């Protein structure tokens, strides 16, 4: 794969160099922007992610070079080059092929505005151009049947009806990513930096000035630059998807006009075209800038350096891969393989987290499955079949939250699935309302699951045909008290469905906004979310005012119960609404004003015991109960973070629960093999959801990890542990003590 990446870079450099030679004779400018396309951040992001787009991007300059030769010079070899590029784009990556095909007519029209080597009457010129483009047209036409076949196969997948805009929004960058590098975030896809943008603007201004001075001679260069810049701008807007112009209106329009565009999930992938187009625009701009001051000694060198230095300084510092260290052995997967072999069965497993089928997390599952020749029910596919989604994922997705029914066990056994494997460090918030410890403990004490082995963050279980087969007692960790279950679900009332309410700004409210209920018919409905039957499951509603509030708790579409709440608080308070369910359910709540005036701020779905402490009271929370990476100790609720796996990242956070206003002491019980004085990490404290400037404290070996924090309101409190990766770390528990 690395060799393929190197080859793609060299071919990109060669094709770009040949293309740019057609727009300037200055070899220094050509060299600068040929290297520019190599260091462009999106290219390396795609390569480091092992995306086929990163490799297939090499065909973009080849395609444009071929089209340019055919349109501007009428050369038949240009059509052959373009046709070859079309073929290899189709074979290399669907995104490159799709966006490349959209680019073909646009570039052909653009090339007509550039200097041409063709002579003669218009009819003759256009005839030569058509002839030169024939090979590309034939290849493109033949691809039509291949694309129809592909589209037919995709019609049977979740992509068949197109991607939902909400799904696209999750995978689309924000406009801030154009000029602010956001490492690890999807917005890093569209990073441009200021240098290239400023250069293009300066070049456009100079071309406009030249046009005013010599309209006849400078019209075509100005039109070429204008349409090229408009194309680049349009691509930048499309790259933002639903976050683009007019809340994604332009993106939605393009999806309507070009139906295959609805299958694009990552809108930012259109940036696969951007390096080459920016290189042409940059060459045009820098060339006109050099000519503008050609009478000044050393002006050319000054301009080239003025552009090269900021671009190279900026881009070269960004292209760094995040390395993931995968173990060469995994006892949990090995235990599954050996257990199945001893029972005369094929080792078939389902892995938690169970995804709809298109998550990159599955790459880690597949690594270990290949190592031990274990077959997985759930893997990865860029186009997930509807059958898998409807008949596998939907019936089983509750296992992500630790809920495994007898019907699901029978379903798995009928498919020959004999084992469950859970990766506790691959468990993002979107999959469950609570941290992974809840699901793990439910599996450990499930009567139809037998714990087999534990390898760091991976746990293996055999699915029993009957609870009577259980030969081991529940694991020690499963017998411990569950403690609080911190909420991964937090709703802002102003972003929920509501009627007849007023939206009010207030710095004391979560996200600085709340809704005021004072009119008849004022109501707010919090959207459904899936939840297991966790102990102490409850809605927590932050409100204030004087009046009566009718709360209707729903399970699915059915009303579970109604409750009339009396609100008599001048300041923000949390009301709790217990939710009693016996199976995995979709729960929601509807709040309607009965009388008076009531303000509603936000809501949490929480479980377990979390008291509002009085002065002198404490609560001790096992580290495993927090949101976290790492792995749980085999005998305790402590969590271990290995330096080789988690250097320089947040590995532990929570509780995201409210505290009563007052002074608190928070202490972390830890151990590490580091030398005394070594900095282990940094604790970043957010006293409430509106806390813009986080407090922080360095954590050193040999010193007590204890701090005091004054809480001024009862908004959810949170702390993040940034792990430096200097030594392995074990966290045992976190103790909250109210001092005042």
Brief synopsis:
The protein is α+β, with helices and mostly antiparallel strands and 740 residues long. Helix content is 38%, strand content 25%. Strands 6, 7, 8, 9, 10, 11, 12 and 13 form an 8-stranded antiparallel β-sheet that branches. Strands 14, 16, 17, 19, 22 and 24 form a 6-stranded antiparallel β-sheet that branches.
List the helices and strands and how they pair.
Layout (H helix, E strand, L loop, with lengths): L1 H19 L6 H13 L1 H8 L3 H5 L2 H15 L2 H17 L1 H18 L10 H11 L1 H21 L10 H6 L23 H20 L1 H25 L5 H13 L16 H19 L6 H18 L14 H12 L5 E5 L9 H10 L3 E2 L9 H11 L9 H9 L4 E5 L12 H9 L4 E7 L2 E6 L12 H4 L10 E3 L4 E3 L2 E4 L7 E5 L5 E9 L6 E18 L2 E21 L6 E22 L11 E5 L4 E2 L2 E2 L6 E3 L7 E10 L3 E11 L6 E8 L8 E6 L4 E7 L4 E8 L5 E10 L2
Parallel strand pairs: 1-2, 1-3
Antiparallel strand pairs: 3-5, 4-5, 6-13, 7-10, 8-9, 9-13, 10-13, 11-12, 11-13, 14-24, 15-18, 16-17, 17-24, 18-23, 19-22, 19-24, 20-21, 20-23
Helix pairs in contact: 1-2, 1-5, 2-14, 2-15, 5-6, 5-7, 5-8, 6-7, 6-9, 11-12, 11-14, 12-14, 14-15
Model description:
The protein is an alpha+beta fold and 740 residues long. The strands form 4 sheets. Strands 6, 7, 8, 9, 10, 11, 12 and 13 form an 8-stranded antiparallel β-sheet that branches. Helix 2 packs antiparallel against helix 14, helix 5 (59-73) packs antiparallel against helix 8 and helix 6 (76-92) runs antiparallel to helix 7 (94-111). It is globular. It starts with a helix and ends with a strand. The model has no long low-confidence stretch (mean pLDDT 89).
Q: Oligomeric form of this entry?
A: single chain
Helical residues, percent: 25-40%
**Which spans have pLDDT < 50 for at least 5 consecutive residues?**
none
Distance between the termini: 60 Å
The geometry reads as globular
**Structural classification:** alpha+beta
* Count of strand segments: 24
Mean pLDDT: 89
How much of the sequence lies in strands comes to: 15-25%
The major beta sheet can be summarized as:
8 strands, antiparallel
Q: Helical stretch count?
A: 21
User: What is the rounded Rg?
Assistant: 30 Å
